[in-house]
């Protein structure tokens, strides 16, 4: 008798690691690395991007999905001045 695979959940939420465990991300719910997401959205994200980092995700989106006159940039917060801040708008 062959063993049947358990069907994957299609409703509800599950936990997503912002930084994957394979890249030393914490698995503790209190760490801030875990976010609750829709199970289908989560599965789709990993189908498209696996455990890639934000720069790799942006590169895939730029190459394949965005119009050529647009560019998505991934940056760490506070490394590059934001253009939507009052200070940045004064210089515009």
Outline:
This protein has 92 residues and is an alpha+beta fold.
Tell me what you see in this structure.
It is a single chain. With 92 residues, the protein is α+β, with helices and mostly antiparallel strands. It folds into two domains: 12-50, no CATH class; 52-92, no CATH class. The chain has three helices and two strands, in the order ββααα. It has helices at 39-49, 54-65, 86-90, and strands at residues 13-17, 34-38. A two-stranded antiparallel ribbon has the order 1-2. The longest helix is centred in the middle third of the chain and has 12 residues, at 54-65. The chain starts with 12 loop residues before the first strand and ends with a helix. The mean pLDDT is 88.
* First and last CA, distance: 70 Å
Widest sheet: strand order? Answer: 1-2
Mean pLDDT: 88
Low-confidence sequence ranges: none
Fraction of residues in helix? 25-40%
DSSP E strands, number: 2
Largest sheet: 2 strands, antiparallel
Calculate Rg over CA atoms.
Answer: 18 Å
Number of domains: 2
- Molecular shape: extended
| Proportion of beta-strand residues | 5-15%
| Secondary-structure element order, N to C | EEHHH
Q: Helical element count?
A: 3
Category from helices, strands and their pairing: alpha+beta
Classify the oligomer. Answer: single chain
Write the layout of secondary structure elements.
Elements: E1 13-17, E2 34-38, H1 39-49, H2 54-65, H3 86-90
Antiparallel strand pairs: 1-2
